[in-house]
Design brief:
The protein contains 5 helices and 2 strands. It is mostly helical and about 150 residues long. It has a two-stranded antiparallel sheet with strand order 1-2. The radius of gyration is 20 Å and the shape is elongated.
Amino acid sequence: MAGGNGKSSGSRKTTSKARVGNKGEAATLARQDAFLDVFRLTGNITKSAELSDINRRTVYDWRENPDFEQRFKDSYEESNDHVRAEIHRRAVTGYEDQIVYRGELTGASVTKYSDRMLELEANIRGFVKRGDRFGNQVDDSVPASDEEFL
């Protein structure tokens, strides 16, 4: 993820290797782990399946298994944490933008902040009341959960 340290904490990584009964199951769990490791970073099923050399349809089949589905949801939440951290970084901490003069880098930089990212951060925290494009207030008293998008 941009601006991150490029490392996954792995703190939420859970496996079912202790319950493996045969080599086929162990191979499947290894493939699932490989997919979930990538999914934590991308948050995208198709891209993660491609990078893990797994057919994306297989992932949807695996999701019918309650153990995998829980591991998938945990990985999805960790992916969301990465996105939220990046939104916060761009909005609050800021990011360095190199100064260019007459097409050349000057060696100087300026810290910039994103108003749009701050708006997203405020929305995530529930500080923003939204309206539709016609000015009608939208009832968002109960924030949408990530479950709706899975």
